[in-house]
UniProtKB/TrEMBL annotation:
Protein's name in the database: non-specific serine/threonine protein kinase
Catalyzed reactions per annotation: L-threonyl-[protein] + ATP = O-phospho-L-threonyl-[protein] + ADP + H(+); L-seryl-[protein] + ATP = O-phospho-L-seryl-[protein] + ADP + H(+)
Presence of keyword Ubl conjugation: no
PANTHER family according to UniProt: SERINE/THREONINE PROTEIN KINASE, SERINE_THREONINE KINASE LIKE DOMAIN CONTAINING 1
UniProt-listed InterPro entries: Ankyrin_rpt (IPR002110), Ankyrin_rpt-contain_sf (IPR036770), Kinase-like_dom_sf (IPR011009), Prot_kinase_dom (IPR000719), Protein_kinase_ATP_BS (IPR017441)
Amino acid sequence: MGQLHKPGEIVAKRYCILNVLGEGGSGVTYRAKDLKEKEQVALKALSLRQIKDWKNIDRFEREARVLAQLKHPAIPRYLDYFQVDAEEDRAFYITQQLAEGESLETWINKGWHATERDVRNIAEQILEVLVYLHSLNPPIVHRDIKPQNIIRQPDGRVFLVDFGAVQEIYHSTLARSSTVAGTFGYMAPEQFMGQAVPGSDLYGLGATLLFLLTHRSPAELPTNQLKIDFRDRVRTSEAFADILEKLLEPDLDNRFSSATEALKALRDKKSQQARSIQRKPTKVLAGLAIGTVVTVLLFEGFKYPLMSTLGFTPYPFYTAIRDNDLETARTYLDKGIRINTRDARNSSPLHWSVSNNSVDVAQLLIERGANIHDTYDAYQKDAHTVLHTAVHHDTKEMAKLLLDFGAKVNARNAFGQTPLHSAIIKKGRYEYYGMDSTQPAPALEVLELLVARGADVDAKDNSGQTPLDYAKEYGYNEVIAFLKRHGGN
């Protein structure tokens, strides 16, 4: 989202904006000076400009009250929350004690190479925080543990910031999006299905520690049977690698049962040695080995179809879609990934490929049976098609591919808008998986393609507006002239 304030502005007659500390999908966090208390604070602002239903604002307030009750030395205190109504905007604010230091991401970007001892120290401190949070009644789950949300001071002390509950409320309730709180690469598999539990925080911590050791997002690392294959990429003791592996178990049941158990394993000197293996009678071992092999072989046969049916698809598959990596995408499809599986945002692989303009992968998915007419409800609950998405992002080659395979040029979304309407809408639009428009106006070549394929230039949306009305509203003179040349009224 865009920045709401500039340095020097005064918010609520109390907080003077100094600079931006961080920016995410749900809000902007500023360094500000509390003019009343004469101290610097972190001020998080969430714009509610495009929100029409205000009855759920109390959910923000309830969550802020919960956060205000937290008392732990590694959690900056939540000080205040309030709402500000202005003529041009409405926003909800949360103020928090300022954690001096820099995020782990910043430390790495500046060239810091953490030793195993450094990483263990960070793990121990965060686990202590999680023991506290998860022991509350009810337990508080952070939901978004990642390098950006852990602040480290030069003396090694760390702070956990930016709890994900607020952004989850923002997306799911007010922004009417199915987006779940969390960050790709650091989210546990169950979070993709909308389930955030204490064990999810352990996975996020493991992924963060792995980033410190590899300087790469866990999403970029190879996987083996859904597990991140990292051992040959880190220089740590086997004992610590074992702990990392258990933190990163994709199956919640195989992860540490609690932060307390993980902390005990980390502190236990015996865990720094190779774990002893109890001897078992040869016949029993042989029987177990055969049973294990059979189980693995059976699981391999239905693992991917089952997991994609449940809404969890391996990271590398989505990475392949994003990077237009045809070979990797084909490999996972061959393994049984369901072609029309849906993620937590209710989007299928085809929608991912169109959103990322991965033309080759999109064609592969369509040839394998992807439903080109499916609608999607991300963000605005607008039930748009993939053609709406392609033209919205000015991707002519993708739009042509979809039309060649039978996409309906005059398909309607929930607002009655056709792809021609969507191709013109640019201002204040929502992002699709991080894509941004770099053009100040719609691409005429996309409009020409749509009209040449039979787009109705006089189609009216549910409000009675035509594409020409949209072009006039946004002041797109070239588009206005183009539509009039083709009979637009």
